[in-house]
Amino acid sequence: MKSRTSPKRGxxxxxxxxxxxxxxxxxxxxxxxxxxxxxxxxxxxxxxxxILGYLLxxxxxxxxxxxxxxxxxxxxxxxxSTVYLNLSTxxxxxxxxxxxxxxxxxxxxxxxTPHYHVVCRxxxxxxxxxxxxxxxVSLARFLKEYAExxxxxxxxxPRFSLTGLAPRRAKVHAKNQxxxxxxxxxxxxxxxxxxxxxxxxxxxAES
Length: 207
Ligand SMILES: [Zn+2]
Hints:
The protein has helices spanning 6-16, 22-39, 46-57, 64-73, 80-92, 139-151, 167-200; strands at 61-62, 97-100, 106-109, 115-120, 126-130, 133-134, 137-138, 161-164. It has 207 residues and is an alpha+beta fold. The chain has a 3-stranded antiparallel β-sheet. A 3-stranded mixed β-sheet has the order 5-4-8, with no helix packed on it. It has a two-stranded antiparallel ribbon with strand order 6-7.
């Protein structure tokens, strides 16, 4: 697989650039898109440019269906099968990476540098985690080589996907937990009060 040079660098810079440069980034990304297609020996087509341009704008993890809907809403005239075909072509040459989403669906990722994912188990939101290195290689490569050395097997490089709660959802959970805790305390207190009353007046119910 070819290594991506300028396009990925451009996309990385775009992600960390201030918001005021959005317009400039847009033009840069159009130029990028065409030069990336050329660099990878892919014929230019409008759908291909649009799909790749969309994915290169920032970190995206999208299904073919959501990409199709987003592009439709932007007024692009594409069919779902065109989206599938082009995503598969872009994945074949290593411009996007296919991975499994939280419910097993195929998602496409414009970040092809070594990284892993953390997926919110409630919203499905996906965040990239840069691959930590062990002995100068990525964690996945390290594990693969370790497993091969240990077993003599030919081992596939693992792809990590961790699940968790996005900060927004974690806040909601913390709030709900605090609410439940307060409610339980009130219930416990009133149960205790009721028990104390019964104790003071054991025949209260009959009287
Ligand atoms: Zn990713």
